[in-house]
Amino acid sequence: MTNTNLIDISQEILNDNVIGKLSTFLGEERRKVRRGFLSSVASILNLFMANTEDKTKVQFILDFLKDPRFDGTMITELDRVLGGGPATSGIMDSGGVVIRSQIGDGFKSLVDNVVSDSAISSVSAQKLLPLVASFLLNLIKKHSAGESPDATGLIELLNSQKDGIASFLT
Q1: pLDDT of 36-86, one tens digit each?
Q2: Sign of the alpha-carbon torsion through 112, 44, 102, 166
Q3: Which of 13-17, 107-111, 146-150 has the lowest mean pLDDT?
Q4: 165 neighbors 45 (Cβ within 8 angstroms)
Q5: What predicted TM-score, i.e. pTM, was given to this entire model?
């Protein structure tokens, strides 16, 4: 599992249909949405990676990975999740909780980073980041053979993302 580049996998999942739905959902241009999504992936992975020394924050992610909503199916059902309504708001609420558990009051700086990198609006970044956090939890779960990794496995996976994040940001 530690050789999994989650940014590359995210790029593969972002087909034209998904980008179109996200573009409609956010009211942004497709090009900006693609960059905003991937920038959000890199930013959240970087945040998770920065917190691997904090056992409480690692445990919080592990607890979320045990939640049935993060069973990996969101990856193949992005169209449904992006359709609006309770499915979308539930996923966004959960993603928001995950981000706040990792960054506390620093959400605005995360938003600012995504806005600066992708040129999407601040409002769109505020919607996109929680969605991407939920997406990442599903991606981690899916690439852990549907099982929640233990703390060591999660930390190894997150730390293995350093090169992928650096490549994306350059």
Answers
A1: 999 999 999 999 999 999 999 999 999 988 888 788 888 888 877 887 788
A2: negative
A3: 146-150
A4: yes
A5: 0.91
Amino acid occupying residue 48: F
Instruction: Give dist(CA 106, CA 33) in Å, integer.
Output: 22
CA 164 to chain centre: 14
Q: Which residues of 120-129 are buried (b: 16+ CB within 10 A; e: fewer)?
A: bbeebbbbbb
Q: Are 137 and 70 in contact (CB under 8 A)?
A: yes
What is the rounded CA–CA span in Å between residue 62 and residue 139?
13
How many beta carbons lie within 10 A of that of residue 98, not counting itself? 23
What separation in angstroms does the CA of 74 have from each of 113, 137, 157?
A: 25, 9, 20
Please report the DSSP string for 11-33 in residue order.
HHH--HHHHHHHHHHHT--HHHH
- Return the amino acid letter for 111: V
Distance CA 108, CA 115 (A): 10
